[in-house]
Amino acid sequence: MRLDRFLGNLPDFNRRNSRLLLASGRVRVDGQVVRDGCSEIREFSRIEVDGRILQPGRAALYFMLHKPAGVVSATRHERHRTVLDLLDEPDRQGLHLAGRLDLGTTGLLLLTNDGHWSRRITHPRYKLAKVYYVETAEPIGEEYIETFARGLYFAFEDLVTQPAHLELLGSHSARLTLFEGRYHQVKRMFGYFRNPVLRLHRESMGPLRLESELPPGHYRPLTSEEIQLI
Ligand code: URA
User: Fold this and answer.
1) Does the active-site annotation cover 102?
2) Which fold is adopted by the domain 62-229?
């Protein structure tokens, strides 16, 4: 089938806006931008608009996984097992991560093949709360609360972090809520006080919480209600 005909037949598009989508380079076929509507697509071609997969036959997939320590948040890696290796799903190669965790970090990880949905989780514009349980090498002082709420300057990105909420739980443990997801953000924030993070666990992302019934290394599909919440 021709690509423009395929797009024009979908409920979200018509002939005219399909042509515009193609011309603006927002359509990919098997990962390559295609601007020519006359291009032929095959049954198993992967069609995306702005990262959203369009095949009617290829369902959108959404999973929550309890990431164990020692597994890499990536779809492939030369040395370590990846989180994709934990999924026993035929279409797992099409999945990507909605927010990564460091090798030693445990907790909630979301995987999907729906780029629109994952952007609402990861893009700082949406300010979705990500809650972490943290244990540190040194005592955590009251002054951390104010400093994290004010924001910290990250020189590499040349930005000030969004106000974050810190709840002290014990002398060396706390719950930190972030509204963005910068590279190694939690460790860098505690690093400001030269306080190494010894344990880091993501408890929730927005309305989605990791339940105790899901042990490390296990996963489950999200329900349609959970998908709609994001
Ligand atoms: N911040 C970190 O420093 N590491 C993570 O894995 C997640 C947030």
Assistant:
1) yes
2) Pseudouridine synthase (3.30.2350)
